[in-house]
Specification:
Strand content: 5-15%
Order of helices and strands: HHEHEHEHHEHEHEEEHEHHHHHHH
Structural class: alpha/beta
Number of domains: 3
Largest sheet: 5 strands, parallel
Strand order of the largest sheet: 2-5-8-1-9
Distance between the termini: 57 Å
Protein name: MoxR family ATPase
CATH architecture of the largest domain: 3-Layer(aba) Sandwich
Pfam families: AAA_5 (PF07728)
Number of helices: 16
Radius of gyration: 24 Å
CATH superfamily of the largest domain: P-loop containing nucleotide triphosphate hydrolases
Number of strands: 9
Oligomer: single chain
Shape: elongated
Organism: Verminephrobacter aporrectodeae subsp. tuberculatae
InterPro entries: AAA+_ATPase, ATPase_dyneun-rel_AAA, CbbQ/NirQ/NorQ/GpvN, P-loop_NTPase
CATH class of the largest domain: Alpha Beta
Length: 306
């Protein structure tokens, strides 16, 4: 079991602790996270897929020594899947056993079957009832859920409590550290945003991406890591970015570096790019758009500065 650590005393300490856990946060992100910890407010992270939103929750869980509880959102997500369900099979067995004994009082029987031992806790309730020091709750891709689910989240986000009709109001045993992520597939309701601190997470600058690649793909040489970071950075920049539906994320950069190491690649050339394009891109059209001519241009020297 992890030993819990107190919240880092400063932004710089938090940056160093995250780096030790393998996550390289820039200062603006670290400040937003530090304030979320200090003010005990949820933090909403928005950004393109693959910029490190989910990975931040995983690293923070390690830094704080708290268990990570993940609620993966999707279209059609229901409250019972996020909060709780009753173990109907066990309740039915209890009722049948009571009926077999005879003389069962229906009011008493109802109280018995709605005891906590028949409660199946889902992520929100697990986070609220986690023992001290509490949990890190990741509400991942909240933009995939529908608006009624957003409305359901408001009580939790604003007061760290939820209402269970058969039991009453359940308040946090220890305040969970709560991170919400969104890929911006749709706008979230203002009521959700008002209850959270907010940070837009963008693709990393070259130096930070290089540090991430070196840490996550230690088998890559310094020269190969630098070439990976430079190549992917150019892919995301104009005029190349317009050719693709989705630019590669940080995870793709790291995976590509590992693949190049596995292939004993010393220097990236157009042929290697063509052979491994399916690691950088997950859409057929994007793979096709990365032509040999474009690879040559991407691998060429930087244009002269005016």
């Amino acid at each position: 079991m992890n030993t819990a650590s107190p919240a880092p005393p400063s932004v710089d300490t938090l940056i160093q602790a995250l780096q030790h856990a393998g996550y390289f946060a820039d200062r603006r992100l670290a400040i937003a996270l530090f304030l979320a910890l200090r003010l005990q407010r949820p933090l909403l992270l928005e950004g393109a897929p693959g910029v490190g939103k989910t990975a931040l929750a995983q690293a923070l869980s390690q830094v704080l020594g708290r268990s990570l509880i993940r609620l993966q959102c999707y279209d059609g997500l229901e409250q019972r899947e996020a909060l709780y369900e009753w173990n109907y099979a066990a309740q039915l067995l209890h009722m049948r056993a009571a009926e077999g004994r005879g003389g069962a009082d229906m009011g008493q029987l109802e109280r018995e079957v709605y005891q906590e031992r028949y409660l199946i806790r889902r992520p929100l309730l697990q986070a609220l009832q986690a023992p001290a020091p509490g949990a890190v709750l990741l509400i991942d891709e909240v933009d995939r859920a529908d608006e009624p689910f957003e409305a359901f989240l408001l009580e939790y986000l604003g007061e760290y409590q939820v209402s269970v009709p058969e039991i009453g109001t359940v308040r946090a045993t220890a305040t969970p550290v709560t991170l919400l992520t969104s890929n911006r597939t749709r706008d979230l309701h203002d009521a959700v945003k008002r209850r959270c601190l907010y940070h837009w997470l963008d693709y990393p600058e070259r130096a930070r991406e290089l540090a991430i690649v070196r840490a996550q793909a230690p088998g890559a040489s310094a020269a190969l890591s630098a070439q990976v970071a430079e190549f992917v950075g150019r892919l995301r920049s104009q005029p190349f970015a317009d050719a693709f539906q989705r630019a590669p994320g940080i995870a793709e950069s790291v995976e590509w570096a590992r693949a190049l190491v596995a292939l004993d690649t010393v220097v990236i050339d157009p042929e290697v790019v063509s052979d491994t394009a399916g690691i950088l891109f997950k859409q057929r059209e994007d793979v096709a758009a990365l032509t040999r001519e474009m690879a040559l241009e991407l691998l060429g020297p930087l244009p002269a500065q005016a």
